[in-house]
């Protein structure tokens, strides 16, 4: 269980780095393009302090409504996959909103929306153990899910700090964007 906790923390850190990088990119784009919809990009993922209990509750309710309007129940999900339950639902700095949902296929959908309910980040995170490898085509037993076969694109660098390689029994984590494209892959022992 401790290893899964470490894996989850690594995945969370990777997602956080992705969000911060995306935020910086959007911040630069918003400054150059002068688009009003982008606004200020979120800073570090910290929960905003509650100055007044009722105002904080109202802000959270408004964020949930905005997020719900911007993200449909099936947005970014593979065919037949549904949301099982909400794991985290918080307001971030600058009224950005983060929602983490557990999916029926064992993955997690991470959504970050801006103050207007526009999607800033929408990706799926998966963790599991490699069952079979055929080049870059990998069959994985997803934690809390079923087997999936993924093909790792040639343009994706596999993060493999321990030089484990794509081998049977190795733990693997991968992130998928809203279009179903693999964005990152990490191996653990």
Summarize the structure in words.
This protein has 189 residues and is an alpha+beta fold. It has a domain at 126-188: OB fold (Dihydrolipoamide Acetyltransferase, E2P), CATH 2.40.50. It is built from two helices and nine strands, in the order ααβββββββββ. Strands 1, 2, 3, 4, 5, 6, 7, 8 and 9 form a nine-stranded mixed sheet that branches. Mean pLDDT is 75; it is low at 1-6 and 24-69.
The arrangement of helices and strands along the chain is HHEEEEEEEEE
CATH top level of the domain at 126-188 is: Mainly Beta
Radius of gyration: 18 Å
How large a portion of the residues is in β-strands, by DSSP E?
25-35%
Indicate the percent of residues in helices. Answer: 25-40%
What's the short story on this structure?
With 189 residues, the protein is an alpha+beta fold. The protein has helices at 2-33, 53-70, and strands spanning 83-91, 97-103, 108-113, 119-134, 137-142, 147-151, 158-159, 171-177, 182-188. The protein has a domain at 126-188: OB fold (Dihydrolipoamide Acetyltransferase, E2P).
């Amino acid at each position: 269980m401790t290893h899964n906790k470490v894996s989850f923390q690594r995945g969370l850190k990777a997602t956080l780095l992705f969000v911060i990088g995306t935020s910086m990119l959007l911040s630069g784009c918003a400054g150059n393009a002068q688009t009003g919809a982008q606004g200020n990009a979120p800073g570090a993922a910290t929960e905003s302090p509650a100055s007044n209990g009722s105002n904080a509750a109202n802000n959270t309710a408004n964020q949930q409504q905005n997020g719900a309007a911007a993200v449909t129940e099936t947005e970014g999900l593979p065919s037949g996959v549904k949301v099982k339950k909400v794991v985290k639902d918080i307001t971030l700095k600058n009224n950005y909103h983060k929602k983490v949902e557990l999916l029926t296929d064992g993955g997690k959908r991470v959504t970050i929306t801006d103050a207007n309910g526009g999607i800033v980040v929408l990706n799926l995170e998966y963790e599991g153990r490699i069952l079979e490898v055929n080049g870059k085509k990998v069959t994985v037993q997803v934690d809390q899910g079923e087997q999936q076969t993924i093909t790792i694109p040639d343009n994706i660098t596999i993060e493999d700090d321990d030089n484990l390689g794509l081998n049977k029994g190795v733990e693997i984590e991968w992130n998928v964007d809203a279009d179903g494209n693999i964005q990152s892959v990490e191996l653990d022992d």
